[in-house]
Amino acid sequence: MNKSLKDKPSFGHLIALALIVVAGLFIQRGYMNEYPSHIHAWAEQDHYALSVGFINNGFDFFHPETMIYNKQFPGWWKEASETTITSADFPVHEYIVALLMRLFDTDAPWVFRLWTLFIAFVGLFFLFKISYFITRDWPKSMLVVIVAMTSPIVAYYMNGFLPGIPALSMSIVGLWFYLKYHEGEQIKHFHLSVAFLTLALLMRTTFAIALIAMLCFEMLRVMRKETSFLNKLPSVVLAIAAYLASFLWNRHLRLTHGTIFLNNLLPPESWQDAQELITEAYNNWAFQYFQHLHYWLFLVFALFAIAFAVFHAIAKKRHTDSASAKQPLSLWWLPSIQLFGCLLFTVAMMQQIQYHDYYFIDTFLLPLLLLLALSLKAIPASKRTIILVTECLVVAILAVVMIRNVVETQTTRRLQENHGEISYNNLKDADRLLDSLNVPKNAKILCLFGYAQNGPFIQMKRKGYSVMTDDKELIEAAFTWDFDYIVIENSKFETYLERQRDMLSRLQRVGGNGKLSVCTPTHHTTYQSANEFFDAKE
User: Fold this and answer.
1) Are 142 and 244 found together in one domain?
2) Disulfide check for 66: which of 49, 124, 149, 389 has CB 3.0–4.6 Å away?
3) Which residues contact 330 (CB under 8 A, 6 or more apart)?
4) What 3 state SS string does 120-181 have?
5) Position 346 in a domain
6) What angle do CA 333, 338, 342 make, to 5 degrees?
7) How many domains does the chain have?
């Protein structure tokens, strides 16, 4: 801690940044304009729709909206709202994407992906700076970054649509400023740390864990009389005020307009339920969180750290003079406190962890990476050229293996056919089909059996009502809403036809393209066969 941090990046830092960009682009090649239609397409499309919504509403930041009138909450899609406004965590990420879409005059997926990837690169570069601050060793710092960017879920979402990666990057930047403060005690760095950590919290509520962990760590230092507290109050008070203002405004939007986003805790119902949920999450995601090689590296370096800690403890006992001097609070406490917060969050949301791999990005990823850096620090460094060259070669070999593995997982995560991909393929050029049928841009569309709730409407470039299943109660409610046209995917309608055969008498087909049928509701009973329906106005 006694070496000063360099404000200007060194040549080694610039090399690290170049390698991060090159490796990241290599991992993401082929996916930069991919529509979100694979794992967690639902959540990704919702955030994509927020950006499109800002374009539609004239960039009104305080009234975020998507493309659907019937939100998931509170009525589970069975209640139609007069607006498409929804509550959402501080959507600055989606807002910037909307501005870029307007700048480039396109709402194509590559705009969103490019911005997320840029922010990911910023976070990875500051992760390198943090690791270098801890280890004072270039190869070790680069290894931490490579482990982070070759995590299968990080690689998958690194250019995606969810706010987890941008919020993680802001947390990493905030932690970097905290370390600068921790070393030099310049209060401006503490305020900057709180600002970035608060921004991460506003973007993604789970990143409250990182902010609270930092404040708890600082309070321990205050109690040990290592630092003062009063000069930190202004930024802490502002952070609390910003969160409360955001929370209360979101609550207002949720109560007034409904929401498409989950906003309640879902703990396990019993100890047995918790065991089953954890087992299911392990089976689904354990080797999506990290690669097999990553886990071995964590284990090996943790054992090295423990061995060297024991050695130093024994050595310290032999030097009573040095042992008597009061040591500053160890940085090991910071990720440890954060991990405790992550465990509490896991309990609070345990019913969701089996489905949502990206919760790991919000919680355990950062403290585990910090622990990896601290473990690497425990291994003695050497300035001998031969040792440094050997370290670089070992890290390079490991990097090649990890990048090769994650490129493979990028493919395998997209191999399984799913509802999102089926709907995406069925709805290709849906906006052109609707234009050709003179369906106005402001027409309200009832989309039957499309997946997920916002995705079909993004492709149709129109707003409407989402009915993803053949739930009879939901369908009956939907036919009472104020819609102008009905769009149905032919393949899905054929699947549901046995249970929805009476629907044929309620539809007037006005056109289609072989994959989609565009209809209007009939106000009189029209008996027709399935063949007659699908052949009409093709």
Assistant:
1) yes
2) 49
3) none
4) HHHHHHHHHHHHHHHHCCHHHHHHHHHHHHCCHHHHHHCCCCCCHHHHHHHHHHHHHHHHHH
5) no
6) 145
7) 2
Structural domain boundaries, residue 478: 420-535
Whole-structure pTM value: 0.93
Residues 400 and 482 occupy one common structural domain: no
CATH code of the domain covering residue 486: 3.40.190
189-193, Cβ contacts within 8 angstroms, sequence gap of 24 or more: 190/218, 190/232, 190/235, 191/234, 191/235
Q: Which helix (H) or strand (E) holds 518?
A: strand 516-521
524 burial type by CB count under 10 A (0-12 exposed, 13-18 middle, 19+ buried) = exposed
Q: What are phi and psi of 447, to 5 degrees?
A: -100, 115
The answer to whether residue 368 sits within a structural domain is no
Dump pLDDT digits (tens) for 415-461.
Answer: 876 888 999 999 999 999 999 999 999 999 999 988 989 999 999 99
How does the average pLDDT of the chain come out, rounded? 91
Where are the extended beta strands (E) located within 346-463?
Answer: 445-448
Position 5 scores a pLDDT of: 46
Cβ contacts of 129 within 8 Å, gap of 6 or more = 13, 176
Collapsing DSSP states into helix, strand and coil, what is residue 302? Answer: helix
Mean pLDDT along residues 282-302: 94
By C-alpha distance, which of 130, 212, 178, 168 is closest to 364? 168
Q: Give the pLDDT score at 477.
A: 92
Residue 453 dihedral angles phi and psi, to the nearest 5° = -65, -40
Q: Which position has the token pair 């990666």?
A: 165
Whether 315 shows a pLDDT value over 80: the answer reads no
* 321 in a structural domain: no
